[in-house]
Amino acid sequence: MDYSMSELDYGLTDYSVTDVQQLRNAVGQHGEQLVAGMSERGNELTTLDDSQPAAEEVQSDSEVSAMAQESPKNSAAEISVTTNGQLEDSHEHNFNRDLKHSLPVGLGLSETKITSHGSDNTKEGVTEAGPFQGGRMQQKSGPVVLADEVKNPAMEKLELVRKWSLNTYKCTRQIISEKLGRGSRTVDLELEAQIEILRDNKKKYENILKLAQTLSTQLYQMVHTQRQLGDAFADLSLKSLELHEEFGYNADTQKLLAKNGETLLGAINFFIASVNTLVNKTIEDTLLTVKQYESARIEYDAYRTDLEELNLGPRDANTLPKIEQSQQLFQMHKEKYDKMRNDVSIKLKFLEENKVKVLHNQLVLFHNAIAAYFAGNQKQLDQTLKQFHIKLKTPGVDAPSWLEEQ
User: Fold this and answer.
1) Residue 188 to residues 179, 298, 381: CA-CA distances in angstroms?
2) Which of 124, 207, 260, 312 falls 20 to 30 Å from 64 in CA-CA distance?
3) Residue extents of the structural domains in the chain
4) 33 φ, ψ to 5°?
5) Spatial distance between the Cα atoms of 52 and 391, rounded to a whole number of angstroms
6) Which of 344, 241, 237 is nearest to 287 (CA)?
7) For the CA atoms of 72, 76, 82, 85, what is the dihedral angle to 10 degrees?
8) What is the DSSP annotation of 332-363?
9) Are 226 and 254 in contact (CB under 8 A)?
């Protein structure tokens, strides 16, 4: 900070009380000590002016000016006010220190210049501030993005692939170990027996379904042949007058057999549809849950094996976090395995109840229809279809479209 000391040294003897008060108001609260020191120095300078020659005053002024020019280089901006070239620690030094603390960060005292301009009536202090030299940087406006909240889809997919690869590797290793007889597996004997029975029954039901479809196909061909044969007998009955009655009897018999065959065919097709729903939907859904249960069992055994291997190894600062993480994964897959085992048990129970109910009705239908057909009991055959709410498709009439059904 640069002070014009020549203006402060001279003319202070002419200050009145009013002038000093105006100077205090101009400089501010922090300059009160400086003004008091300036008044005292004015009295001292008046005494020195009477005893020293003019040449000595010129020499003192040049020394003060030189020291004032060197003061901006000092970061503390100390002001040296002397009359004989010696450094004086006065009230100005305290004012400079207070002013330095009151200025903004980055604005040193070396960047501020305080001058005092004198006139006949008023004295005022002017503070001139230069540009900052390496002060506080201005913050640039713009959106602020937090790195933790940024979600990168590529990184998420890569993490999913990494977890999937690690899980697949562990499960594959567990399966190979079980097949080679080296690894242990968790077995629920009761549940495994029920699953094995279900798979065996599914194969048998599929065989029944296949044979019933074959019977339906063959019966359809026979009915179609009987219908054609009845039409041929009826045509010959009209054209052969000598054999009119004989052809007529055979035509009626074949048409009756074709009609009863269509009724039996409707019952067999209903039986096939019900068994197909049981085998390929209900049982298949249960077996899908069984597959999920087996996958959960393999994952559970894989992570159980990893945890056992880590527990057998040394325990230090490097292995303890791995053991803790493995324990968490093991617990998670154990809960999944228990849940899937419970789901399989419930589905097997419901499947058994539904299977008994469905097969009971379908087997009764199949028996009554076959017995009535081959016994020639058309009334009993029709009653069987009504009992199971079976509607026969009229020959030559296509099924209604889904718009017509609506």
Assistant:
1) 18, 13, 48
2) 124
3) 2-129, 184-396
4) -65, -35
5) 141
6) 344
7) -70
8) HHHHHHHHHHHHHHHHHHHHHHHHHHHHHHHH
9) yes
Report the phi/psi class of residue 122: left, alpha or beta, with left for phi > 0 and alpha for psi in -120 to 50: beta
Q: Radius of gyration of the chain from Cα atoms? A: 56
Write the single-letter amino acid at 335: E
Amino acid, single-letter form, for residue 270: F
Q: Collapse the DSSP code of 317 into the 3-class scheme (helix H, G, I; strand E, B; otherwise coil) and give the result.
A: coil
Helix, strand, coil share of the chain (percent; to 5): 75, 5, 20
> Residue 36's pLDDT band (boundaries 50, 70, 90)?
low
How many of the other CB atoms lie within 10 Å of CB of 266?
19
CA atoms within 13 A on the CB side of 33: 12
| Rounded Cα distance, 88 and 66, in Å | 15
Which helix (H) or strand (E) element contains residue 112? strand 112-118
Q: How far apart are CA 309 and CA 323, in angstroms?
A: 10
Does domain 184-396 fall into CATH 3.40.50.10330? no
The closest of 112, 143, 380 to 263, measured between CA atoms, is 380
Cα–Cα distance between 362 and 205 in angstroms, integer?
A: 13
Count of alpha carbons within 13 angstroms of residue 307, beta-carbon side: 17
Task: Count how many residues are written for the chain.
Answer: 406
Instruction: Output the average pLDDT for the chain.
Output: 73
For 182-237, write each residue's pLDDT tens digit: 878 888 899 999 999 999 999 999 999 999 999 999 999 999 999 999 999 999 88
Distances (CA, A) of 60 to 53, 105, 345, 361: 11, 35, 110, 130
DSSP 185-250: ----HHHHHHHHHHHHHHHHHHHHHHHHHHHHHHHHHHHHHHHHHHHHHHHHHHH-STTHHHHHHH
Q: Report the C-alpha gap between 41 and 87 in whole angstroms.
A: 14
What's the pTM?
0.55
